[in-house]
Amino acid sequence: MKKLTIKIISLLSIILLLGGVAVMAQNPNSSNEASKMVAKGKLVSVDTDAQTFQIETEEGETVTFMYNEETKVTGAQSVQGLADNQGTWVTIQYRTENSEHTALAIHLNKGKPGH
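The structure assignment produced for this chain is given below.
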């Protein structure tokens, strides 16, 4: 009887452990790394009042991103400095929450997309 109880407890523990792993795998917000994405395109506009900017992807789609004081910028002094670089190719690392894209990092590419 004692061996049967130990086997049942072990089996239930394994089931609970696997269930927890499955739930974490289905929730992209369980890890910040899992929810980070990358976009590339040409900088179209910057609205410093609304703290947003738009890019046009190689496919011709216009995508709007929000930014904040934590957004890291390389290739310009600041996000506001991007306004002087309209038409420049950029690579954006961002996260999406509630259908809103928030830029985590912006890199100005001096050459073609992805370079």
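Interim note for the steering committee: The first strand starts at residue 36 and ends at 47. The first helix runs from residue 2 to 26.
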